[in-house]
Amino acid sequence: FGDPRRTRIAPDASEEFSDEDLIPDEAVLVSITQRSYVKRVAAKTYRRQGRGGRGVTGHSMRGEDEVMMLFPARSLDTVLFFSDRGKVYSEKAYQIPDADRTARGIPMVNILALSPDELVTAAVAVPDFSAANYCTMATRNGKIKRVELPKFAAVRPSGLIAISLEEADVLGWVRLTSGDDEIIIVTEQGQALRFHEEKVRPMGRPAAGMRGIRLRPGDYVTSMGVVDPDSDLLVVSQKGYGKRTPLKEYPVKGRATGGVVTLSRSTRDLTGPVAAARVVSAEDDLTIISSGGKVLRTKMKQIKQTGRATMGVRVINLKEGETVASVARISAKDLKLVGVES
Fold first, then answer.
1. 260-261 and 182-187: which strand pairing?
2. 3-state secondary structure of 167
3. In angstroms, rounded to a whole number, what is the distance separating the alpha carbons of residues 37 and 8?
4. Would you call 212 helix, strand, or coil by DSSP?
5. So what's the architecture of 24-337 in CATH?
6. pLDDT in tens, 128-187
7. CA 92, CA 156: separation in Å to the nearest integer?
8. pLDDT at 216 over 70
9. Is the dihedral of CA 300, 84, 319, 268 positive or negative?
């Protein structure tokens, strides 16, 4: 051949390559549905929407199996999955099966060693284990726990204990925190407590945590989030009422106190108790699902911003006997990180 060789043969090359070296580091979206299906989709498959756009379908659903968690990641990130039984499982994002944008995904049990009836209740994407200082978690019975994030760097396939739970308690919420964040916890009977995370001392992985909020008899936690001072707190009641209140109306209190009222007893007679609460911005997307399978999808800004002491407005019409079963917030800020306009 007349052309000179364009490559160089180096028989003494000693550098070793792993499978990960061949994986493109691309932006992806990971979604988990109400019925515990999971999938990974390249962010570029979600087209941008102009004003007035009709949106795009993000899942192929059977019987309204709605997306309950949707979060951005890089394909080389580690995704930590936390279950209601207090365990943590780990999987690389690229090992979550890639799916077409409209595909349903696969059952979680196909990639995680979950026990029968064990449910994933939270998931976080970790670029590296110095990306945040702590993993902060909360339980239904009001416990809060903070663990140094590197303690989850080597989770075995069978999972590890993330928090030791008392009988009848469940792990419900997990967030990555900086060490200088504020936490807000909301209960079923309408109490809301905002406090500094530094009031929760870091603990070892098997520890049971400490009291996060003082609960009245019969009360339990419905939500935990990390405060963004410029955002709002969305509170949705079981009878379909909702309100969006600036977080500045929720004062910082001490850990293990009762907090302040966000839905009074007299108000709850009409609205029902709190179904869920979320830290939100006006540009986020909201999905509400009723116990009868009815689904409402809307922009957060469609819910009027009101004061903390108000009852809010009806956001979903329910049939007799129906209640709000679940509330999902899809963050516009997170989607923009991977180039997707919600």
1. unpaired
2. coil
3. 47
4. coil
5. 6 Propeller (2.120)
6. 998 789 999 999 999 999 999 999 999 988 999 999 999 999 999 999 999 999 999 999
7. 12
8. yes
9. negative
d(CA 289, CA 313): 17
For the chain, which residues make up each domain, given as ranges?
Answer: 24-337
Provide the b/e sequence for 24-46 (b: ≥16 CB within 10 Å).
eeeebbbbbbbbbbbbbbbbebb
Which band of pLDDT confidence, cut at 50, 70 and 90, is reported for residue 92?
Answer: very high
Residue 308 makes CB contacts below 8 A (sequence gap 6+) with: 245, 249, 250, 260, 261, 262
| pLDDT, position 9 | 64
- Structure-token match 């108790």, residue found: 273
Q: Cα torsion at 49, 52, 58, 59 (round to 10°)?
A: -160
Measuring CA to CA, which residue among 254, 263, 326, 269 is closest to residue 295? 326
Contact 174, 209 (CB under 8 A): no
d(CA 303, CA 119): 30
The residue type of 7 is T
Q: What gap in Å lies between CA 106 and CA 326, rounded to an integer?
A: 21
More confident residue, 113 or 295: 113
φ, ψ for residue 331 (rounded to 5)? -75, 120
- Does the pLDDT value for residue 57 go beyond 70? no
Tokens 């909360």 locate to 138
pLDDT of amino acid 81: 98
d(CA 138, CA 150): 19
Strand partners of residue 186: 192, 223
What tokens were used for 82? 């936390």
- If one compares 126 and 18, the residue with the highest pLDDT of the two is 126
Q: What would the DSSP string read from start to end of 259-298?
A: -EESS-HHHHHHH-SEEEEEEE-TT-EEEEEETTS-EEEE
